[in-house]
C-alpha cells in the first residue's frame, strides 16, 4: 500500500468545525437563556455546510459529489460485509457518500426550520416578520425543527459508528486520513488544489469563524435582533403603573386573559390577602387597559400558553397557578423562591429582568438566583 495525500487541509478543518459547531449548538438548545448562542452556532454551522456544498462542485478530486460512490450494489456489499475486510476506497466509501449527502440536506432543513421557529416564536431574527401571522403555528415548527436535528444527530451517530468499524474492525485508516490528510492506497494519488480552490478554502474557514464570533459578540444583528418592543406602561396608563406597581412589579397585561382580569378587578378587597380597593373610576380605567391588552390580544407565546392553561378555568387569577407557569418552572428548586433575594414566586423580575417593560424573552433571563434551572 502507498501513502497518498487525499484530503486537503480545508476538508479536515471544516470537518472539525462541523463537529464542534453541531455539538455545541445541540447542547445549548437545552438552555433557554442561552438561545441566542444556540442560534449563533446554528447559523455558523449553516455557513460551513453552505461552503461544503459549493466545495462539492469546485473542490479537488474525491471532495466533489461526482466522485462520491452512490452505486447501490457497492453500498449493499459494503453494508453486508460491515464486520469483515472489504474493498478499500480512495475517497468516500458508499456508506459515507450517502451519509455526507444526507447530512448536508438535513442540516439545511434543520437550520431553516430553526430560523423559522426563532422568528415566529421569539420574534427574533431575519424571519421575525412572520411572527404576527404564524405565531399560533409555532408548536408544529418547533417539533419539526427538533425532528430534523435529531435525524441529523442519528446520521452523525451512524457515520461515527461506521468510521469506528472501519478503523477497528476493517483496519482502515479512514479516520487517520481525516487528521493527517494521508491515506494508504493501491496506487499513488496526490491531491493538488489550485490557487482558486485555496483562496476559496481561506474564505470558507474565515467566513465560518467570523459568522460565529459576529453573532456571539454582537448584539442585535439581523439574524438575532428582537422585534419585540419595550412597553412604557406608565405612559400607556399611569393609573395601572402607579397603583399596581406601588405594591408589586408591573405585570404585563398579556399574562392573563380577560376573564381573569375581570375577576381580579371585581374583588380587589381580597387581593391576595390585601385590600387593594380603588374608587370606581380608577378601577374601570385600569380594567379597560388590562382587558384591551390581555392575553387574547397578544402574539406572545406566554399568552398562548396561559390561554391554553385557563381554557376551561373560570377562577384562576394568579399567573403562578397556571399549568403553563408550572411547566415552565418545573425544574426550579423551591429554595429559589424562598430565598431572601426572590422571596416569592410572583417576583418575576428576579429572573426576568425586563418584564416590567413587557419583555419576557429567553435572552433576558438572569441566572443570578437560579439553582439547577435554566
CATH topology of the largest domain: Fumarate Reductase Cytochrome B subunit
Tell me what the CATH architecture of the largest domain is.
Up-down Bundle
The tally of helices reads: 15
Estimate the global geometry from the Cα principal axes. Answer: elongated
Number of domains: 2
Listing every helix as H and every strand as E from the N terminus to the C terminus, the arrangement reads EHHHHHHHEHHHHHHHH
**Share of residues in strands:** under 5%
Cross-sheet strand order for the largest sheet: 1-2
Low-confidence stretches: none
Task: Round the mean pLDDT to the nearest integer and report it.
Answer: 92
> Describe the biggest sheet?
2 strands, antiparallel
Structural class: mainly alpha
Count of distinct strands: 2
**Helical coverage, percent range:** 40-55%
Terminal-residue CA separation: 54 Å
Quickly name the level 1 CATH class of the largest domain. Mainly Alpha
Cα-based radius of gyration, to the nearest Å = 28 Å
Describe the overall structure.
With 374 residues, the protein is mainly alpha-helical. It has 2 domains: 2-217, Fumarate Reductase Cytochrome B subunit; 233-364, no CATH class. Helices cover 53% and strands 2% of the residues. It has 15 helices and 2 strands. The chain has a two-stranded antiparallel ribbon with strand order 1-2. Helix 2 (35-58) packs antiparallel against helix 4 and helix 4 (94-121) packs antiparallel against helix 6. The chain is elongated and about 95 Å long. The mean pLDDT is 92.
Amino acid at each position: 500500500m502507498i501513502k497518498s495525500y487525499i484530503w486537503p487541509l480545508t476538508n479536515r478543518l471544516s470537518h472539525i468545525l462541523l463537529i464542534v459547531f453541531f455539538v455545541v449548538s445541540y447542547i445549548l438548545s437545552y438552555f433557554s437563556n442561552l438561545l441566542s448562542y444556540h442560534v449563533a452556532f446554528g447559523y455558523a454551522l449553516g455557513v460551513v455546510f453552505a461552503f461544503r456544498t459549493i466545495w462539492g462542485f469546485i473542490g479537488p478530486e474525491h471532495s466533489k459529489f461526482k466522485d462520491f460512490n452512490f452505486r447501490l450494489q457497492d453500498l449493499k456489499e459494503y453494508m453486508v460485509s460491515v464486520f469483515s475486510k472489504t474493498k478499500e476506497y480512495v475517497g468516500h466509501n458508499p456508506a459515507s457518500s450517502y451519509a455526507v449527502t444526507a447530512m448536508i440536506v438535513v442540516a439545511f432543513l434543520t437550520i431553516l426550520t430553526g430560523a423559522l421557529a426563532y422568528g415566529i416564536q421569539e420574534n427574533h431574527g431575519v424571519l421575525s416578520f412572520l411572527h404576527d401571522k404564524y405565531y399560533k403555528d409555532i408548536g408544529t415548527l418547533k417539533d419539526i425543527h427538533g425532528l430534523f436535528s435529531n435525524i441529523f444527530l442519528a446520521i452523525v451517530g451512524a457515520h461515527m459508528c461506521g468510521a469506528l468499524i472501519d478503523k477497528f474492525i476493517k483496519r482502515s485508516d479512514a479516520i487517520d486520513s481525516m487528521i493527517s490528510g494521508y491515506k494508504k492506497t493501491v496506487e499513488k494519488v496526490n491531491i493538488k488544489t489550485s490557487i482558486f480552490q485555496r483562496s476559496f478554502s481561506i474564505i470558507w474557514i474565515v467566513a465560518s469563524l467570523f459568522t460565529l464570533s459576529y453573532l456571539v459578540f454582537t448584539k442585535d444583528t439581523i439574524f438575532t435582533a428582537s422585534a419585540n418592543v419595550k412597553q412604557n406602561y406608565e405612559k400607556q396608563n399611569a393609573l395601572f403603573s402607579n397603583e399596581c406597581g406601588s405594591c408589586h412589579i408591573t405585570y404585563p397585561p398579556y399574562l392573563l386573559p380577560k376573564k381573569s382580569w375581570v375577576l381580579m378587578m371585581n374583588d380587589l378587597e381580597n387581593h391576595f390577602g390585601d385590600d387593594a380597593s380603588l374608587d370606581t373610576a380608577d378601577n374601570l380605567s385600569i380594567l379597560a387597559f388590562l382587558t384591551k391588552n390581555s392575553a387574547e390580544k397578544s402574539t406572545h407565546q406566554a399568552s398562548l400558553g396561559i390561554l391554553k392553561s385557563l381554557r376551561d378555568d373560570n377562577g384562576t387569577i394568579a399567573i403562578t397557578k397556571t399549568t403553563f407557569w408550572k411547566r415552565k418552572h418545573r425544574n426550579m428548586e423551591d429554595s429559589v423562591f424562598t430565598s431572601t433575594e426572590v422571596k416569592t414566586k410572583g417576583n418575576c423580575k428576579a429572573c426576568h429582568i425586563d418584564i416590567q417593560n413587557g419583555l419576557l424573552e429567553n435572552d433576558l433571563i438572569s441566572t443570578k438566583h437560579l439553582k439547577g434551572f435554566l
